[in-house]
Every structure is written in structure tokens, then in C-alpha cells.
Amino acid sequence: GAVVSQHPSWVICKSGTSVKIECRSLDFQATTMFWYRQFPKQSLMLMATSNEGSKATYEQGVEKDKFLINHASLTLSTLTVTSAHPEDSSFYICSATQGSPYNQPQHFGDGTRLSIL
Amino acid sequence: DQQVKQNSPSLSVQEGRISILNCDYTNSMFDYFLWYKKYPAEGPTFLISISSIKDKNEDGRFTVFLNKSAKHLSLHIVPSQPGDSAVYFCAASSHSGGSNYKLTFGKGTLLTVNP
Fold this sequence. Notes:
The complex is a heterodimer.
Chain A: E1 4-7, E2 10-13, E3 19-25, E4 32-38, E5 45-51, E6 57-58, E7 67-73, E8 76-81, E9 90-97, E10 106-108, E11 112-116
Parallel strand pairs in A: 2-11
Antiparallel strand pairs in A: 1-3, 3-8, 4-5, 4-9, 5-6, 7-8, 9-10, 9-11
Chain B: E1 4-5, E2 10-14, E3 19-25, E4 32-38, E5 45-51, E6 56-59, E7 62-67, E8 72-77, E9 86-93, E10 104-105, E11 109-114
């Protein structure tokens, strides 16, 4: 149980393109989903917390107009990188909790490797 | 300022022996700790967690030990198997409410188990 699916797994696109990444909880309902970014040899850095039916909470330094998050249902959250540039190239990964995020582990998708040319 | 530190970037052990992965934290508000395992091109997989009210939690070959006074936790894998070779991340969070349930990750330790 507790499977999280992330799509696409790899994206290569031109500078200026907007890219949408989907995160789905396949066998459970996730009130809260999280979006992380990871640079090479670095730890996962939380970008934002996505709550179903409400606005996402962004971490300090993360541009909300750049990284649009939508959590329209209990099983789907999307991250849209708007007008992507080479510096946005990174590994983006989502997670979801089954139940309360306070005392339940987050379950992760397999991530999306984004490369902006 | 890194609140969760995994000071060993890599560890190599022989199959059948014990693997000990270490993690230190600086934030005394952390009260829930987790270990994740990550293979290349995959997302982290939850392994085991421990609440600060405990000092040990065991699940099969995996045991996590927590030393609150030292702000230190460790993951023991015994016996180690070649399939355990992966990057292991330590993570911590706080139950103090608000947005503090977010996980703070260490940089990971690459474990290699040699046959």
C-alpha cells in the first residue's frame, strides 16, 4: 500500500516552456502532499506543502508565481514550473501522507528529472 | 545551517555483517525521526521511524536507536545484504504544530554491501 505515482519521470524542454508535473496517491487519499527539489549530492529541500482544497504553503525563498501548485483532489497534486529556465533544471519529487502528516511517514514518488535547454 | 547531519557520505560493509548509519540533529524541537532508502532513479522508500518517546524501534533486520541527550540516531542493519546497497536518508520533524511537520533531511549516506 501507500503508493505514490509521479509523472513524467523525465522532461527535456526549451527555455521559456512551462512544465507540469503530476503527483498521484494511487491507493490512499492524501490530504497533504509535499513538493521537494534535490540538487546533486544535496539533501531533499522542501519547496511547498500542498493541501487539498486550499492554497499551498511555500517555503522561504521559493517563488510561488514560478512554481504553481494545485491540489484539486485528495489523490492529485500538480506542480507547474512556469517559464522554465536552465537554472530550474533539477530533480523534483513529491510525497504524500496517509493520514496525519504529524505522525505518519511521507511516501514518495519516483521523482521527475527536469532539464531545461 | 544544516539541522540534520549525516557526516559519512559513504559506508562499505561485507555481506552478513552489521551496517551502522549515523545521523545527528541540532534542533531540539524534533521529535519524530525517519529513515528512508533510495535507489538510483527512484524516490525514497520509507524504512523505519521512531518517536522521541522511545529510544529503540525494531523492524526485522532494521533497528533505529535514538539518543535524545546526544541528539543522535542510528540505523542498524543486520545482517547486511547486497540488496541493501542504496543511499540512506535520515529525516526529522516536529509535532509542535503549525507547519513544523515538514521533514528536514540529511544529505544521505551511500551504503555499499559487498558480497
